[in-house]
Design a protein that fits this description.
three-stranded antiparallel sheet; mainly alpha; about 775 residues; two-stranded antiparallel ribbon
Length: about 775
């Protein structure tokens, strides 16, 4: 793979604009090359060159002597890099070309001007990020001091920090420097003393196994002071419904320490996550530095090759001496973080500690591709078999068959909605990866556990095969007169299928992508408990998906009615004759929009941003429209039709505006791209205009309730299902552009890391008293 492609592939997606513009510099070099080719005199024939070399003077067999005492470096005569220091002590580089003016030199001047600009940009960005990391490291130091003190307080309640410190100081004063030996080889009295005062920190020097045989002066190590606990409180992150309710009632975001083991465990878990994320930041910074240094080296080699000027060594020397190439803060901090994490969070087990800090990259398996193709082929074959069986038995022409299809259609259409949504999600993942949208970071997936489009396609085709095979078996048994006496038991087949699917979803063993299944269950639970949980992007993104799955949720309601009220034993669908069913028919349609409304209220309460209030109003208007449309669907009448038209039109107009302008960020007046936005990941602009038109058309799909489509070959429920499929397709299209806009917002702010809150809050008692 060429370096340019590898460089683009290895970029942090959110930092793309902060990297050296390698392709832009290559374009300038390409112009220089074209100019030299067009002005280069024709070369003589190769035979003539060979003849001329035969008449050159013989230089001898001895090696030419190398004169090291040259008056000056030849490269210094090509370029001179000037360094200027700004007021904030940052260096700015400016290259001057030291050669006689000649035709075509403008391109080389442009090349070095852009090269200097890229070097200054990369240096500035790298320094800013390093300063942020070092500031966060200082905060982490204070968090670790509090954690160690809390460990002493919890594990040794009788430990008196001040008296123990004085006693230990007296012991240290009378103690000579000790030699550390391996515990497996020797045991010294000093080791028992270190075990007793187990908070004595020796991480500042070396690990125990690394220090073997070395002289260590123990007088420089001290136990963590317990007085620090008088100045800290635990942050209340409001991560559970109970903590949220307490936070609302007490209006407090922090609480005093209780010095319980459960509290210590929670603090350790939160600090462990902080360290893992912090380590990932440092690794990305180190990789950023390495890739940019390689890019500068590669582009200067290309410059030398094209222009035949020796300027690479001089410029690369400047790059190496710049902050990007000379700063060792990131490397040193990386080593200190590793040592701290291994010692304090993995019991000095380096293998386990590094496994947490550096999770393994996910590997693509050929078996996934094979089974995806196998299941997709089986799905097509089963669909053909179902259609042929229905036509061969003339099921739709029989009264019993029509009743059967009316009962059974809602039970199996549930899987059609889910499979279609999963297939669209797999397509979204494919295009997100193709256009370098960092969806694992946006959704907050744990590194190495996120599903790719192949895995999602495998799950969707597997579910399709399971549902179609069950439906074909059920249909065959239903039409077989020989087992008519077992008709009641045959009706339980759909219930058995949904039970199997639910059991697989909550299966506790580590098979079938357990981490992803539990991530989905957790997000669903957060949606159900809204607004008691803090709203994150996966939660409200999932709630938006549920708004397009109203018919699937109603299918669950039909399951409860059909089997819970015993309708399956009579093999008649009389659910609409039950008042409770009709009431919940309204409620079920409203639930997804109500969840989003509550999530918007929670975000408005926390962020104090009125955009969340307007978003909540949009969902409230949609709730009103859905209720009125459902009432019109059941009761008919001119009044209900007018109310449904007005309410649905208002909600649809507001939803369409929000989709295109807020969620997708399009239709910006001052944009470089007409009626779109400044940055676009898809190069074909017509894709965005087509998506906007299609979104508007599909948003008005509810008009099918007012204007009935009478198609003889289709049942009424089949028509409503088709429009439900169209809504799922609209949601799949919405997903891509919504995440594209979110990714570009992260790029604009260079957000490439998750923000994990610290467990401790520091405060000063003296300042509090003065206040």
């Amino acid at each position: 793979m060429k370096f340019g492609k590898e460089f683009k592939k290895q970029m942090v997606p959110e930092w793309t604009e902060a990297y050296m513009d390698y392709n832009g510099l290559k374009r300038i070099l390409r112009e220089i090359w074209h100019f030299k080719q067009s002005n280069q005199p024709p070369t003589p024939l190769r035979t003539s060159q060979q003849r001329l070399t035969m008449y050159r003077a013989f230089s001898g067999l001895n090696l030419p002597s190398i004169n090291l005492q040259t008056e000056g470096d030849i490269e210094d005569q090509v370029i001179a890099v000037n360094m200027m220091q700004q007021e904030d002590s940052r260096k700015v580089y400016n290259t001057e070309i030291l050669m006689s003016p000649e035709e075509g030199a403008e391109n080389e001047i442009m090349f070095f001007k852009k090269l200097d600009g890229e070097l200054n940009k990369v240096n500035r960005f790298y320094r800013d990020k390093v300063e942020e990391v070092m500031s966060e490291a200082a905060l982490l130091n204070k968090q670790m001091d509090a954690l160690i003190a809390l460990r002493i307080k919890v594990e040794k309640p009788d430990f008196d920090g001040s008296s123990s410190l004085r006693r230990l100081s007296m012991d240290i004063a009378n103690t000579a420097p000790i030699r550390i030996t391996s515990p497996s080889r020797a045991r010294t009295p000093g080791r028992e003393h270190i075990n007793l005062e187990h908070q004595v920190d020796i991480s500042g020097s070396c690990q125990l196994e690394e220090c073997e045989g070395q002289i260590v002066n123990i007088s420089q190590y001290k136990p963590a002071p317990l007085e620090i606990l008088d100045h800290v409180k635990i942050k209340n992150t409001l991560e559970s419904p109970i903590s949220t309710i307490k936070g609302v009632l007490k209006d407090s975001k922090e609480r005093d320490l209780s010095f319980k083991k459960e509290e210590l465990r929670q603090v350790e878990e939160r600090l462990k996550l902080v360290f893992i994320e912090f380590y990932q930041k440092i690794q990305l910074l180190k990789h950023y530095s390495f890739m940019n240094l390689s890019a500068f080296s590669k582009i200067m080699k290309k410059y030398e090759k094209i222009t035949s000027r020796s300027a690479s060594r001089s410029y690369i020397k400047i790059v190496d001496n710049s902050y990007l190439g000379s700063s060792e803060e990131v490397t040193g901090l990386l080593e200190r973080v590793e040592a701290t994490f291994i010692k304090h969070f993995s019991n000095s087990n380096r293998r386990e500690g590094m496994k947490l800090l550096r999770p393994k990259q996910k590997r693509e398996k050929h078996s996934i591709t094979f089974f995806s193709g196998f299941f997709s082929g089986c799905s097509i074959a089963l669909v053909v078999a179902v259609v042929l069986l229905i036509e061969a038995r003339n099921i739709m022409d029989m009264e019993e068959g029509t009743v059967y299809m009316e009962n059974i259609f809602p039970l199996y259409s549930l899987y059609a909605y889910i499979v279609l949504h999963m297939l669209l999600y797999a397509a979204n993942i494919y295009f997100w990866r193709r256009y370098r949208i960092n969806y694992p970071f946006i959704f907050g997936f744990k590194q190495g556990t996120e599903l790719g489009y192949r895995e999602v396609f495998l799950l969707s085709t597997g579910l399709a095969v399971l549902a179609l095979a069950t439906f074909l078996t059920h249909l065959h048994m239903k039409m077989d007169s020989r087992i008519h006496n077992y008709a009641t038991y045959i009706e339980l087949v759909p219930l058995g299928l949904v039970t199997v699917v639910l059991v697989i979803t909550i299966w506790p063993f580590n098979i079938l992508y357990r981490s992803s299944r539990y991530f989905l269950i957790q997000s669903i639970f957060h949606c159900i408990c809204a607004p008691l949980y803090k709203v994150t992007l996966p939660d409200f993104f999932l709630a938006d998906q549920l708004t397009s799955q109203v018919q699937a949720i109603r299918s669950f309601e039909f399951y409860i009615c059909y089997y819970g009220l015993g309708e399956f034993s009579r093999r008649r669908n009389k659910c609409h004759s039950h008042d409770a069913y009709n009431v919940f028919y309204f409620i079920v349609a409203v639930i997804p929009y109500w969840i989003r409304f509550l999530q918007c209220l929670r975000r408005l309460f926390e962020d104090k941003d009125m955009m969340h209030g307007y978003n909540g109003l949009r969902y409230f208007l949609t709730i009103v429209a859905v209720i009125i449309r459902t009432a019109f669907e059941q009761r008919k009448g001119l009044t209900w039709m007018v109310l449904a038209l007005v309410s649905s039109a208002v909600a649809t107009i507001m939803n369409t505006y929000w989709d295109i302008i807020v969620d997708w960020g399009l239709l910006q007046r001052q944009s470089r791209n007409f009626l779109l936005r400044d940055k676009l990941l898809v190069s074909q602009r017509t894709v965005y205009f087509a998506a906007m038109v299609l979104d508007i058309i599909l948003r008005f799909a509810w008009l099918q309730l007012m204007v009935k489509f009478n198609v003889r070959s289709l049942h009424g429920k089949a028509v409503s299902s088709i429009f439900s499929f169209l809504e799922i397709l609209r949601r799949g299209m919405w997903n891509f552009f919504r995440l594209e806009n979110e990714h570009l917002n992260n790029v604009g702010k260079y957000r490439a890391f998750k923000s994990v809150p610290f467990p401790f809050n520091y405060y000063d008692e003296e300042i509090d008293k003065d206040d």
